[in-house]
Specification:
This protein folds into two domains: 79 residues, Arc Repressor Mutant, subunit A, CATH 1.10.10.10; 206 residues, D-Maltodextrin-Binding Protein, domain 2, CATH 3.40.190. The chain is built from twelve helices and twelve strands. The strands form three sheets. It has a five-stranded mixed β-sheet, sandwiched between helices. The mean pLDDT is 90.
């Protein structure tokens, strides 16, 4: 079996689309289809069921997929082993999120850009469940998580830092200056948030809906939009402290005296059993050092 055919099979099996696989591999779709046909012919089995415009793995395809991943990973490890040890190289697909990419990772990205230019980082913006699934499927090599839980099925995880949260609002907010705000004090007041799926938003919502199932958020999609809405007096928002540090310092936002009854931890995860190549281990080592310093 040719490694090239197995790599194409793994990509198609991961995204379950010939069109998308061709785009991500930078191949013509006919080339991807031809490679899959060639692999099926060499094995004497069908690897995909074609269901109109959709495809799914056959039982044979399901059995082949973990072997294809292991062979691709071994090939990457072999390339790294014979490369110049003084200059790490390789590609890393890293799942991340806005709060980390914009506020925690710039020193890490700058370090790799200048010191390790042959390590090509591909940052993929996704949230918790999507990141975990992509890691399990092998779409991502590494993934940042900001979660309460630190154990995730099928993944190995390293906690990099505890991530403090701040409930913020405009200085003129009705609760600004009030001591020891309770969750009940927030019910019935305008609340702002990023999209569902963000761990701190979901945990905040869980606390509020335990008291009032009718609680609703005004959603703004991004942290920047949520901060601007809070500063404009539209309501309060729970956000990672690192994302609002500048606004708190300049006074456009104030911290409300509410303590979250949960703790988030910034983590870096990868698929269980996956032997990280040298450039991935280097990324983990530098992330451990720089994120901890920034926290």
């Amino acid at each position: 079996m040719e490694l090239r055919l197995l790599a194409t099979f793994e990509k198609v099996a991961t995204v379950l689309s010939f069109t998308r696989a061709a785009a991500e591999l930078n191949y013509a779709q006919s080339s991807v289809t031809g490679q899959i046909r060639a692999l099926e012919d060499s094995l004497g089995v069908e690897l995909f069921d074609r269901l109109g415009s959709r495809i799914r793995l056959t039982e044979a395809g399901e059995r082949l997929l973990p072997y294809a991943r292991r062979m691709r990973e071994l090939a990457e490890e072999a390339r790294a082993a014979v490369a110049d040890a003084e200059e790490p190289s390789g590609t890393l697909a890293v799942g991340t999120m806005e709060s980390l990419t914009s506020y925690r990772l710039p020193p890490l990205l700058e370090l790799f850009h200048h010191r390790y230019p042959k390590v090509r980082l591909s940052l993929r913006p996704t949230l918790g469940d999507e990141t975990r699934q992509a890691l399990r499927q092998g779409t991502y090599d590494l993934g940042f998580l900001m979660e309460e839980e630190t154990r995730h099925a099928g993944l190995e995880t390293e906690v990099l830092a505890v991530e403090p949260l701040a409930l913020v609002a405009a200085p003129r907010h009705a609760l600004a200056g009030k001591a020891q705000i309770t969750t009940a004090d927030l019910v019935g007041r305008p609340l702002l948030a990023t999209e569902p799926g963000c761990a701190y938003r979901d945990l905040f919502e869980r606390e509020l809906t335990a008291l009032d199932a009718s609680v609703q958020f005004m959603e703004f999609g991004t942290i920047e939009a949520t901060k601007r809405a809070a500063a404009a007096g539209l309501g309060s928002a729970l956000l990672p402290e690192v994302t609002v540090a500048a606004e708190l310092a300049e006074g456009s936002l104030v911290r409300l005296d509410w303590q979250p009854p949960f703790t988030l931890r910034t983590q870096l995860a990868w698929r269980s059993g996956k032997r990280l190549p040298a450039h991935a281990r280097l990324f983990l080592e530098q992330a451990r050092r720089l994120v901890a310093e920034e926290a």
